[in-house]
Amino acid sequence: MVNRYARPLAAWYEANARDLPWRAPDRTPWGVLVSEIMLQQTPVARVEPAWRAWMERWPTPGALADAGSAEAIRAWGRLGYPRRALRLYECAVCLVADCGGVVPGDEAALRALPGIGAYTAAAVASFAFGLRAVVLDVNIARVLTRLVTGEALPPPTSSAVERALAEQLLPREAAASVRWNQATMELGALVCRAGAAACEACPLAGSCRWLGLGKPEDVHADRRRVQAYEGTDRQARGRVLGMLREHPDPVALDEVLTALPRPDQARLAVDTLIRDGLIVQIGDALALPSE
């Protein structure tokens, strides 16, 4: 498939790309890896200050590995999905033990690290090492779906069809492929948004099949039900973890259980946090892990 979108999109990106620290010329592969983990399901505005603080404190995998998992979980703060902090710590330990403290550029080697899936491995290979890799996040998938298939949004679960389309459109030359990945992702984040697409500002509006069809409704809407956060088990987990994050010493289990409005939900939160390795039980008290 001939990619007639690459040139106008590259020009748009050159003029409109956000100045983000993990895109700076002095970025490191470790900094890119940290940013990709932090950006999963978390907006850039919340990630940027957390990323800067994290990189100032732990500029290398070795620095994080020496700090321990409790400090990683504590520093994660309110970014959400705290297992990501634990995975980053585990990655750092593996990088020190198996890779000489250096982030590898090979996608297969990246995927061998704890918690690193296909997307993150491809993103690090592309953005940190300038390699040709099929980067397919929600923003890129949405842009390609609208451009080529004319649907409002891609299916809730990515498919081989989406990946094949991304592969077909990815430029063959490495530097051009990196710019395509960056620009398509940025277009999805700033213009081709899920809820309020700014088609009037899109450099590809004249080629967009979705726009040409009159912007039809999402055919997968019934499969995209989002659970409210208030009152959920996830919120309960966050409250328990927040209590332990604020206390350097273990906190009594009874104190934790009675701090939440529903003791049964608090008990479940404690049990799942222990199972996930995010907290530990020490006698009748709870604490962050202490590697």
Précis, in short:
Among the domains are: 6-129, Endonuclease III, domain 1 (Orthogonal Bundle); 233-287, Orthogonal Bundle (Arc Repressor Mutant, subunit A). Helices cover 55% and strands 3% of the residues. It contains 15 helices and 3 strands.
CATH class of one domain: Mainly Alpha
The biggest beta sheet, please? 3 strands, antiparallel
Number of helices: 15
Taking all Cα atoms into account, the compactness measure Rg is 21 Å
From the coordinates shown, what is the CATH architecture of one domain?
A: Orthogonal Bundle
Structural class by secondary-structure content = mainly alpha
Q: pLDDT below 50 for ≥5 consecutive residues: which ranges?
A: none
Strand content: under 5%
Helix-residue proportion: 40-55%
> What form results from the Cα inertia axes?
globular
The end-to-end span amounts to: 51 Å
Count of strand segments: 3
| Side-by-side strand order of the widest sheet | 1-3-2
Would you tell me the overall average pLDDT?
A: 92
- The CATH topology of one domain, please? Endonuclease III, domain 1
The run of helices and strands is HHHHHHHHHHHHHEHHEE
CATH superfamily of one domain: Hypothetical protein, domain 2
